[in-house]
Structures are given as C-alpha cells and as structure tokens.
Write a structure and sequence with these properties.
The complex is a heterodimer of chains A (about 200) and B (about 80).
Chain A: H1 15-26, H2 29-38, E1 44-45, H3 46-53, H4 57-69, E2 73-78, E3 81-86, H5 88-102, H6 105-126, H7 131-137, H8 145-166, H9 175-182
Antiparallel strand pairs in A: 1-3, 2-3
Chain B: H1 16-27, E1 33-38, E2 47-51, E3 60-67, E4 73-80
Antiparallel strand pairs in B: 1-2, 2-3, 3-4
Amino acid sequence: MTAPDAPGDRWQGGVNEAAVDDWKAETTTFERVRQVIDVTTEPQAASRIGERARVSDPTARKHLSALAETGRVKTIATDAGTRYMRAPQMLAMRRIADIHREHAKAEIREAIRDLKAELQEFRERYDVDDVDELTLDLEPGEDGWEDVARWQQVEQNLDIAQAALSLYDFDPDDSRSAAGRASETGSTVEERGALGGDSTHSTA
Amino acid sequence: MAPETDVEGNVGPLDDVALEQIREVFRSVDGLVEDAGFDSPLDPTALEIRFADGIGDADWCRFDVRWVQRGITASTTRTSEE
C-alpha cells in the first residue's frame, strides 16, 4: 500500500483486503492458524478456521492437530466431524505464570482481597448469590449487563490470581530451603515466583 | 471500574488473548504508538494504547481497547491539551 501524492490519485482499495494481504505476507500458515484458534472461543470446523486463517482445509487440519498435541487446542468430536477451539486452561496458564513470576506474594494477596470485595459488592447490590442468577434476571438491553461482564471478569481474574498464589506453595524440590542454605544470611530476601525463568518477561 | 459502554447482553469477560494480539499489531506500527499495555496485570480492564501525538492541538492521545469473548467490542478515546 502506497500513500498517494495527489487527491485525484487516491488509493481505491479496500482496507480489510489490504490488511489481510499484509497479514498473509508477514506470517506463515502455522502462525495464522495459531492466531485464529487463540481467539476462537466456540467450537468450529477446520474448514472455517482455515477460511479465517486464509489457508487450505488440509493445512488448517494439519496445524490444528499439531496444536492439539501441545494442548493449545481443544478438539471436540461431533456427528458432523471434529470441531476445534482454544484450550482455555493452557492460555490461562500463561497468565498465571506471568503473574507468579512478576508479582510478590503480598501483591497477589492484596489483589485477591480487592477482587473478593468487589464480588461481595455485586452480590449485595443485586441481592443474588452468583452472576448466573443475575444473568437470568436481566432482559436483553436492560441496565446491568455491563456489571455482568465485569462480574465474570472479576471471577476470572480471581481464579487466575489464586492459582498464581498457590504456586508459591508448590515446591517439590524444596527450593526455598536450598536457597536458604545457599544464602550467606541463611534466608531468602524476596519472595517472588520464578516460574518460566527470567528471559521471557511479559510486558503486560 | 470499566468505562461506560453499550453492553446489552451477555458478552462474557474480557478476552485478554485477543487483546494481546491487538497489542502486538499496534506495537508493530513504527513511530506511531508510544506504549501499549494493560491497565493492570492482576485485574486488566482495558488495553491502553498511548500515541505520541494527539488529535488537533492535543499533545497526546490514548485509546482504551476492550475486547470481550462474545458479541461486541468497545473502545474510548482520550486526548489532552497541556
């Protein structure tokens, strides 16, 4: 895509088509299938995934099978054939690892306290036990759906924060004792997770 | 809290994986985007994309992008004249 010099020489193409062309030029077929399946939250046929990723059916099927073997893709057998969607647990693990690595135990505990307090506020405001109950009470277009989305978000963030916190107790190699023995003072200075190593810090 | 939007149904929570992809797209735009990141890693509500220049006389501009798992997207634009 080039910028026109004169008004009469304006580019007449479609933005969406140009974006797709750029995407195809900058990515491999595997990368496109992975990007598409990563945002696929409802089961879809390989042909539909291939259509969205701009790859052929056999190529989509091949890459989806490879991604399923790594646990990144969930496969569902139906009467109409195999359906594919992203594996939410695998993607959640990435966030859990990032949070565990980049936040001290106290920070995660504080976030958990705040998230739990917000959930309690929702329960009291709407006089319901959970978000599903609120969902059943609301009509389409009625005020309150924004709070439903936020409530679901808070529950998801709470689950992830709690999982990141629980990793501090997961120490099969007894690394805390080993660190204490290695330290001159006999104790570790900072309690911060190490999952995932230091070389892949998230910028989230 | 999340900004006001026109959510009118069960759209699900924020899709942070999709937002990560959107962030990478913005970051690949050389010279235009100053920074792009979540407002909070522990409780993300939006992807904040900060531009080095603003609209009109504004010195800077920020897009807050939200992408939910089902249904709709929403974004707000903020600018400042300093």
